[in-house]
Every structure is written in structure tokens, then in C-alpha cells.
Write a structure and sequence with these properties.
By secondary structure, this protein is α/β, with parallel strands linked by helices. Helices cover 70% and strands 8% of the residues. Strand 6 and strand 7 form a beta hairpin. InterPro entries: P-loop_NTPase, YhaN_AAA.
Length: 992
């Protein structure tokens, strides 16, 4: 089992921590004190074995594990709630019950979670839990559990103490009390004593008879052993007698029958193969004589076949060219008729400068297009030539002056409104002038008078009172001055604002008169806004009319310029068209196409070029026609020679050549097949010869085997084979009977006695003894019944002799108590015997297993100390020695602390390995176990643990910086062997 993921949702100082430990390699977790190492170890123990009683509040977490068989589980422990799930099923059992055969937390802490204080020495091997889980695993862990339960049941039934309170102790005490009470209730002491003695004697007699019955039953068991073994013994003896009768084949080779069967099968197999091969042999060769001519002419056939495609292509080319020549003549005649319409004569010009004609045609077409564009681009007059004049209209300067006046009037109206508002505010303030400063002045004078009165009455110090009078008078004077200044400043501001308002009114009146506005400066603001809006409309109308007149004047000047430019372009294009027309007529006279128009130039050029190309193709065909005919004659002559050589009477054509080649391909394949058949015929004959030799070798080996076994014939050999098989069957029966006898006899001594009994006596003797002891047991049972009956009579008489029924009740209670006591004693004795047997079995497993544990621990110690020490136990296993490399045995008392810790660590790791092999590997957790190690021992131990953790999960907790440094060095030397982590206040980080 390996831990895949730890989730510490709320566990001590860890909150919402998730960590995925590596699956292999030594995991070193370093942290200072109180960093969370102990809490993390507590988390692992709690996830595997649950929280300790009463110590579950506030702990939440879960752990993901992967078992050795690959199955994955998640263990949840949220306070009291705990369960296990594999994603599909939920389990409410504990992991130790499900998987680890009841391993408890104490045993886990002693072996798998080791701290310095847990290294308890060699005494750990005597711990009952460790012995049951780690030494007796071959016998089943339940063995020690059952023995422990038996001992517990024995202790629950009886304890060897007078003060014991167990059931048997209580029943014995109750019997003694009843005996005392019965004696006290006796009517006739002597008679009662005699009857009591007889009653006690019945118990003694019953025990004596019961012992005799038990002896008889034991004898019956003893007799049952030879009776049960007689048939087995007889079967073994019969088998032995048959083995003696077959002794002549006892030395028969064990594999002789197998070898004979293999050789015989091989010979038969060779015979079948040889017969089959001979049936397939032929008497004559598969190759035909007429194929020789074809093979001799193979190169000529291949060459003719290679030329066939060119031959066919040449012939097809000639035929196609003849057809094309006819087509060319027709097309050339049709094109010539068309060209004569443009040339005006029967002769078609041989050389024509079509490029010049195309250039002239393009230019003529371009000039015609430009003329069309010129005509379409004639300018059109826009608007009147002269703008209309208005004698009553004002000038532009006048209207611009009006715009400035409107802006000035708006500014003056704004200033006048602000000035009028300020003047009204001052006038309203003068009507209710504040007398605050005057009141303050009077108040300070009164304060000065109060200070003077206090000085006169000697209520305060004169200097302090003088200062108060002076300060009060000073403040009263300041308040009076400020009040006077305020009353004088308001009229001055009012005069200034009134003058500004009058100046603004005069300027407004002048501007209104200039623009014809019949309003006073004191008119309402709405009236002024309406007058200004009317003035603005007249100004904008003038501005619009002025813009239109200016635009019409500009358009007239532009039209005059465009008209002159248009007339000039028209004159230029007319001259260009006349020049190009003269050049086109000159080209017509020079080329011979006097009736050709520029619009038909493209068609005429195309037709002329096609007519010229047809003429060139006709000339080229006439040149190549002779060479192609000569090539056809060459192909035909070669083919006819080859046909004559092969004796083929057909016309030589490309088609017959292809047919000849196909026939040659068939003949060549048939010839190759025939050659291969002839070669296989030879190989088959060689194989038949080889098989004959192999068959002869096998026959010789069979003869040698017959000589070895002394058999003269094959039939005699087979008979010996059958006799040897019978011998082996009887030997197996004899061995089985011997094994059965050993199982019936539980030990060698009983086996020897059983053999002696079986040799000396017959079943009749044992049957007689069995009948005798059965009668003896039956007689004993009858005697027991008689004794019980006599005891009943005595008890009845004793009860009648009692004064009342108390004695009867006591006797009945005694009888019941004796029966219950006898039952409990039988149970106790059964448990004693069973516990003794289980203890012996467990001791056997411990004697076998403990040396293996010590031996493996010695190997670990030798690896941990680099070969300096190993371990050796005493014969009885009660003492442990460290053996150095000089073979000197060092007892436990002479070990140093560091060596002792190394030995104890090796023993615990060996115990963990034993648990892993028998049940399942569990993660190892080591907590600061290197405290008493020096640097050399620490490095050796770390290297050993890194090797051990290559396939296991091993955690090492430490607060030592030295251990962390050594682990870091090993991690640098061996990649992946050591993983470093740092624990800081409830966090787990990757170490550096």
C-alpha cells in the first residue's frame, strides 16, 4: 500500500493542505520544532487506524491510497464520521480489518512508525503482538487471536486463587457452603454421616469408573489406528509383492518407452513421406524440344516487341498525316477564297506587316474614341452672366458694421443687467444696515467696567484686572472704528455703479439709433432680444444674396475658359485622324489588301496566319513522308525474317507481332515451370534418399535400445515396456500407502509402532480387542448408571432424614452445582488443551521464522554499516550478537548507542519486510532516528534507506540540518533516490 495523496482539510495547524508524496524514493521532511512534523505523523496514524478515544474533535481530512494489486481507495475521517470508498462502493469497516488481518495501532507504531524512543531493543521480538503478526504468519494470524481468546476464556472460567470470583471458583465455594449447611441440618449424625460417606464414596467410585471408561476409549482409539491402516498397509504390501515379481524390469530406462515410441513414430513418418514423394515422381522431362527455337530467338522477339510500339506509332502517324493533308488542302482553299475578297486579286501576298496594320488600327480606333469623348465633353453655360443689382441695398461694409453693432449691444445688455443687480443689492442693504460691530463695542465697554468694579472691590489682582480693562477697551475701540468705515464705504460704491449704468445706457441708445432700433435702454430684455433677432435675419439675408452673386460671377469666367480649351482639343483630334487615315491607305497599297478596313483587320490577320501555317505544315509533311515509309519497310523486313525462323505463316504486322510476343511469354513461363519441375524432381529424389538414410539411422537406434534392454524382438521390447509401466504403477501405489501410513501416525515413534502392529497382528486380533474394550466401556457406563442410581437413593434417604425440606433443597442444589461444575471444568480443560496445542504450533512457526527475520536484519545491518557488522542470534533465540568483520561476537550490553540504534532499526525494517511479503507493504515512517548517529553512520543509513525506498514508500522526519544536508548530497549524487521537502508552520514545500 502506498499513500497517493494527503488532504489535511482541518488538522491541527494544517488547514486546506493538499500534498502528493512521491511513490518511490526516500522522502525527507525537514522542519524545526513546532513546525508540524508530529501533527503530520498523527494524521497518517489517524487516517489508517482512526482517532484515539476522545481525541477527534476538530479533525477533518482524507487520504488517497493505492494497494499492491493496483486498486485505489479514499479514506475519510471527519471527526466521528469515517468510511472508505473506491468510487463505486462505500465501506464502513476499518482498513486493518479489511486488508491487514486485524493489525492494531500499537503493532503499527512499533514496526512501521518508528521514533527514537520506539527503538526498544531486542525485546521487541518477544512482544506477543509482534510474534503473532510477524513470526506466525505462515500459520495464520488467527492462530494467535484464537489462542488469546482461549486464554481469556480460561481466565474467565477459573483463576488459581482462593479469592477468585470466576464461575468455577464460585461453584467450588458454593459446594463447600452446601456441605457445611447439610452437616448442620443432620437428624441422625451417625446415620447421616454414614450416608454422607457413602454419597461421597459414590463420587469416588464414579470417578474411578469414568477413568476406566476413558482408558477403554483411548484403547479403542489406539486400536482404530491399525484397523484404519490395515487396508492401506495390505494394498502397499500387495504392491510390493508385485514390484518384486517385476524386479527384472526395475532397471528399465525411465525414458525407454518414450524413446522407443518416438523412434517408431519417426520411422513410420519417414515411410509415409517416402511413399508420398515416390507417387509424385515422373518418368520423363517436362521441357518440350520445340521450345528451343523460341529460346534461341528470344532476343530477336524482345527486340521486335520493343519496336512494335514504334512501328505501330509510325504507321498510325503516316495514316493520320495523310488524312491531315486532305483536311489542310480543304481548309487552305477556304481561307484563300476569304483572303481574295480583301486583296482584290487571285494572288495572296506572301509577306504582310500585320504588326504595323494592327498599330495603325489601334490608333485609329483610339482617335475615334477620343473624338467621341470630345463631343460629349462640350461645356454647358450655368446661371446668368451678370448678377442683378439693387439700388436700395446697403454696402458690404455697412452690413459688416451691423454685425459688430449686434455683438456690442449684446455685451452692453449683459453688463447693464449685472450693474443694475449690484446697485439694487446695495440699496437694499443700506435700508437694513447691520449694527453688530456697534453692539460688540458696547459689550467690551461693559466688560471693562466689570473689571474696574472687581479691582475696586479687591476681588482680583490689580495687574490682572488692569490688563482685562485695557484689552476690553481696545477691542471696543476696534469694533467702533470698523462700524464707522462700513457706513462710509457703501455710498461710494453706489455712486460708482450709478455712473457706470448711465454710461452703458448712453452707449446703448447710440447703437440702437444707428441700427434703427426704437427701444430705450430700460426696455425689457425680451424686447431687446426680439429687436436683435430681426436685425440678425436681415443681416443673414444680405449675406446669402452676396454669396450667390459672387458664385455666378466665378462660374461665368470658368465657362469662357473651358469653351476655349474644348475648341482647341477638337482641332487637335481632327488633324490626328487625317494623318492616321493617310498612313492606313499607304499600308493597304503596300500589303496588297486594298479593300481591307480597320474593323476587319483582326479577322484578315487570323485567316492569313492560318493559311500560312497550313502551307508550312504541307511543306514539312512532304519532307518527312519519305523517311517514315523507309522506317516502315525496315520494321516489316525484320518481322518477316523472325516469323520465318519460328515457322509462323502469317503476315507480319504490329498486331501479329503483339500476338507472337504473347505466345512467347506463355512459352517462356511454361519453359521456366518445366525447368523448375525437373529441378524439383531431382530434389525430391535427393530428399527420398536422405529420408531412407534417416530411417535407417532410427532403425539402428531402435536396435541399440533393444540390445540395452535385453529384448530380442520389437514385440518383446513392447512387452517389457508394459511390464515396466505396471512396475511404476505398483511403485506409486506403494508410495501412496506409505504416505497414508505416515499421515495416520502423527510422529515417527507412532509410525514405527504402527508398522510393528501391522506386521505382528491380524485384523481379527484388533477386532477382538476392540470388542473387549467396547464391552469394558459399556460395563463402565452401566456401573456409572448404577452408581448414579445408588447416589440418588442415598440422597433421597438423606432428604427424608432432614427436619424439613431445606436439606433436600441443599442436596439438589449440590447436585446441580456439581453438574454445572463438571461442565465448566470440561470446558476449561478443553481450552487448556487447545491453547497448549496452538502454543506449540506458534512456537514451531516462531522457531522457523525468527531466524529468517534475524538473517534479513543482519543483511540490512551489513549494508547499513558498509560490511563492518552483521547479526547472529543464539540457538534458543533469546540473545543477539553483533559480529564484526573479524568474526568477533559482541553481546548486546557492549553495543554503542549508535550501533544499537542501527541494529534495532534493521530488525524493525526486517519485520516490516516480513509483513509486506505475507500480507501487504505499508509505508515506513521514521522520526529523528539518527540522533545518536555520527555523520558517517548518518550517511550510511541514508544511503541504505534510499536503496530500500527504490520500490517502497519511506518517510524520514527530521529537525536536523546536518541530516538534511547529507540527504541533499545523496539526492545530488543519485537522481530520484531522495526527495526533499520542508515543513513550515502547517505548510509542505519542496525543499531546495
Amino acid at each position: 500500500m502506498k499513500i497517493v495523496q494527503m488532504n489535511l482539510d482541518d488538522f491541527g495547524i494544517y488547514h486546506q493542505v493538499e500534498w502528493n508524496p512521491p511513490q518511490r524514493g526516500l522522502i525527507v521532511l525537514h522542519g524545526q520544532n513546532e513546525s508540524g512534523k508530529t501533527t503530520l505523523m498523527k494524521y497518517v496514524r489517524s487516517m489508517l487506524f482512526g482517532y484515539l478515544r476522545g481525541n477527534w474533535r476538530g479533525y477533518f481530512g482524507h487520504m488517497d491510497i493505492c494497494r499492491e494489486d493496483g486498486s485505489s481507495y479514499r479514506i475519510y475521517r471527519n471527526e466521528k464520521e469515517s468510511y472508505i470508498t473506491d468510487g463505486a462502493t462505500v465501506f464502513h469497516e476499518e482498513p486493518s480489518v479489511l486488508w491487514w488481518h486485524g493489525l492494531d495501532r500499537n503493532a503499527y507504531d512499533q514496526i512501521f512508525a518508528i521514533g527514537l524512543e520506539d527503538l526498544q531493543g531486542f525485546g521487541i521480538l518477544a512482544n506477543e503482538t509482534v510474534r503473532s503478526h510477524f513470526f506466525s504468519m505462515e500459520g495464520g494470524i488467527r492462530m494467535s487471536v484464537i489462542r488469546r481468546d482461549l486464554l481469556r476464556r480460561m481466565n474467565d472460567l477459573f483463576v488459581a486463587s482462593p479469592q477468585g470470583k470466576k464461575p468455577i471458583n464460585l461453584l467450588l465455594a458454593a459446594q463447600q457452603d452446601i456441605d457445611k449447611k447439610i452437616e448442620a441440618l443432620a437428624y441422625d449424625e451417625e446415620e447421616f454421616a454414614r450416608l454422607q460417606a457413602e454419597e461421597r464414596k459414590t463420587h469416588v467410585d464414579a470417578r474411578t469408573v469414568r477413568v476406566a471408561v476413558e482408558e477403554a476409549r483411548q484403547q479403542l482409539e489406539r486400536i482404530a489406528m491399525p484397523l484404519a491402516a490395515w487396508e492401506v498397509y495390505q494394498r502397499g504390501c500387495d504392491a510390493w509383492e508385485h514390484m518384486q515379481s517385476l524386479a527384472d524390469v526395475a532397471q528399465f530406462p525411465a525414458d525407454g518407452a518414450q524413446r522407443w515410441r518416438e523412434l517408431e513414430d519417426k520411422v513410420n513418418e519417414f515411410d509415409l513421406e517416402i511413399t508420398g514423394m515416390k507417387q509424385g515422381l515422373r518418368t520423363k522431362s517436362a521441357f518440350r524440344e520445340e521450345w528451343h527455337r523460341w529460346l534461341s530467338g528470344s532476343e530477336q522477339i524482345e527486340e521486335l516487341h520493343r519496336q512494335a510500339a514504334a512501328w505501330r506509332e509510325t504507321a498510325q502517324r503516316v495514316n493520320d498525316s495523310e488524312d491531315a493533308a486532305v483536311d489542310r488542302a480543304f481548309a487552305s482553299s477556304r481561307l484563300a477564297e476569304t483572303l481574295r475578297l480583301w486583296s482584290g486579286s487571285a494572288t495572296i501576298p506572301k509577306a504582310v506587316d500585320w504588326q504595323q496594320a494592327e498599330t495603325l488600327a489601334r490608333k485609329l480606333h483610339s482617335v475615334a474614341q477620343e473624338q467621341e469623348k470630345w463631343r460629349a465633353a462640350e461645356p454647358k453655360p450655368m446661371g446668368s452672366a451678370q448678377p442683378a443689382s439693387d439700388a436700395a441695398e446697403r454696402t458690404a461694409d455697412g452690413w459688416q458694421e451691423t454685425g459688430r453693432h449686434m455683438e456690442k449691444i449684446r455685451q452692453l445688455l449683459t453688463v447693464r443687467q449685472q450693474t443694475a443687480e449690484k446697485l439694487a443689492w446695495l440699496q437694499e442693504g443700506m435700508a437694513g444696515t447691520s449694527h453688530t460691530y456697534l453692539a460688540l463695542s458696547v459689550l467690551f465697554v461693559l466688560v471693562a467696567a466689570v473689571f474696574g468694579l472687581l479691582i475696586a472691590l479687591a476681588a482680583i489682582d490689580m495687574r490682572l484686572g488692569g490688563c482685562g480693562v485695557a484689552a476690553s477697551l481696545l477691542l471696543a475701540g476696534i469694533a467702533a472704528v470698523y462700524q464707522g468705515k462700513r457706513r462710509g464705504r457703501v455710498p461710494q460704491e453706489e455712486q460708482r455703479l450709478s455712473a457706470a449704468l448711465a454710461a452703458c445706457d448712453r452707449e446703448l441708445s447710440g447703437l440702437a439709433a444707428a441700427e434703427g432700433i426704437a427701444l430705450q435702454p430700460t426696455a425689457a430684455a425680451a424686447a431687446w432680444d426680439e429687436a436683435l433677432d430681426d436685425l440678425r435675419r436681415r443681416y443673414l439675408d444680405w449675406h446669402t444674396r452676396e454669396s450667390r452673386v459672387s458664385w455666378e460671377r466665378e462660374q461665368h469666367v470658368m465657362y469662357t475658359a473651358l469653351q476655349q480649351e474644348w475648341q482647341e482639343r477638337g482641332r487637335h483630334w481632327r488633324e490626328e485622324a487625317a494623318r492616321l487615315d493617310r498612313e492606313w491607305r499607304e499600308w493597304q497599297q503596300g500589303s496588297g489588301f486594298i479593300h481591307l478596313k480597320p474593323a476587319d483587320l483582326t479577322a484578315a490577320a487570323t485567316n492569313w496566319r492560318q493559311w500560312q501555317a497550313l502551307a508550312d505544315e504541307e511543306r514539312h509533311w512532304q519532307e518527312t513522308k519519305g523517311a517514315l515509309n523507309q522506317e516502315l519497310v525496315y520494321y516489316r523486313d525484320n518481322g518477316e525474317q523472325l516469323f520465318q525462323l519460328l515457322g509462323i505463316r502469317k503476315e507480319c504486322t504490329p498486331e501479329t507481332t503483339e500476338e507472337l510476343y504473347r505466345q512467347w511469354q506463355q512459352i517462356r513461363v511454361q519453359a521456366e515451370v518445366a525447368k523448375e519441375q525437373d529441378r524439383q524432381q531431382e530434389e525430391r529424389q535427393e530428399q527420398i534418399d536422405r529420408l531412407e538414410k534417416e530411417k535407417e539411422i532410427r532403425r539402428q537406434q531402435m536396435g541399440y535400445l533393444m540390445e540395452q534392454t535385453g529384448a530380442a524382438t520389437a514385440g518383446e521390447f513392447r512387452s517389457k515396456v508394459l511390464r515396466y509401466k505396471q512396475f511404476r504403477q505398483y511403485a506409486e501405489i506403494h508410495e501412496q500407502s506409505e504416505t497414508h501410513l505416515r499421515l495416520i501416525a502423527k510422529n515417527p515413534a507412532e509410525l514405527a509402532e504402527l508398522r510393528r502392529e501391522l506386521k505382528v497382528h491380524e485384523p481379527k486380533f484388533w477386532n477382538e480387542e476392540c470388542a473387549f474394550y467396547e464391552r469394558k466401556a459399556a460395563e463402565g457406563e452401566q456401573k456409572l448408571a448404577a452408581i448414579a442410581e445408588r447416589r440418588g437413593v442415598i440422597v433421597e434417604r438423606l432428604s427424608r432424614m432432614a427436619r424439613n425440606d431445606s436439606a433436600a433443597r441443599l442436596l439438589q442444589d449440590k447436585e446441580n452445582g456439581a453438574a454445572e461444575l463438571e461442565r465448566l471444568v470440561d470446558d476449561w480443560l478443553t481450552d487448556v488443551f487447545a491453547a497448549h496445542i496452538l502454543e506449540a504450533a506458534q512456537a514451531y512457526y516462531e522457531r522457523v521464522r525468527q531466524p529468517l527475520i534475524i538473517s534479513r536484519a543482519g543483511e540490512y545491518l551489513e549494508r547499513m554499516t558498509q560490511g563492518r557488522y552483521t547479526l547472529q542470534a543464539s540457538f534458543d533465540g533469546h540473545q543477539l550478537f553483533a559480529v564484526d568483520n573479524t568474526q568477533r561476537r559482541v553481546p548486546e550490553k557492549q553495543w554503542s548507542s549508535g550501533l544499537g540504534d542501527q541494529i534495532y532499526l534493521a530488525i524493525r525494517i526486517s519485520l516490516a519486510e516480513a509483513f509486506a511479503k505475507q500480507i501487504e507493504p505499508l509505508p515506513l515512517i521514521l522520526d529523528d532516528v539518527f540522533v545518536r548517529f555520527d555523520e558517517v553512520r548518518q550517511k550510511e543509513a541514508l544511503s541504505f534507506l534510499a536503496d530500500l525506498a527504490a520500490e517502497k514508500q519511506l518517510f524520514l522526519f527530521t529537525c536536523s540540518a546536518e541530516t538534511q544536508r547529507l540527504a541533499r548530497d545523496i539526492a545530488a549524487e543519485r537522481a530520484g533516490a531522495v526527495h526533499l521537502f520542508e515543513i513550515e508552520k502547517g505548510t509542505i514545500k519542496v525543499g531546495s
